[in-house]
Amino acid sequence: MSLLEQIGNVWRIRDLRRKLLITIGLLAICRVGVYIPLPGVNVHALGELFRQMGGTPGGHVLGFINLFAGGALRNGAIFGLGIMPYISASIIFTLLANVIPSLETLRKEGAAGQKKLNQYTRLATVFICLLQGAILVRTLFAWPGVVPAAASESWFGSFKFMVTSGFLLMVGTLFLMWVGEQIDEHGIGSGISLIITVNILARLPTGIHRLVLGIRTAESQQNAILKVVLLMALFVGVVMAIVYITRGERRIPMQQQKHVRGPRVYGGQKHYLPLKVNQAGVMPIIFASALLMIPQIVTQSAKAALAGNPTGFWYKFVQYVGDAVASGRLTLTYVFLYGMLIFFFCYFWTAVMFNPKEMSENLQNSGSFIPGIRPGKRTANYLEGIMNRVTLAGSFFLLVVALMPTIVMSALGVDWGIAAFYGGTSILIVVGVMLDLVRRINAHLEVRRYSGFAAGAGGRGRSRRR
Question: Domains in the chain, please, with CATH?
Answer without folding.
Answer: 16-202 (1.10.3370.10)
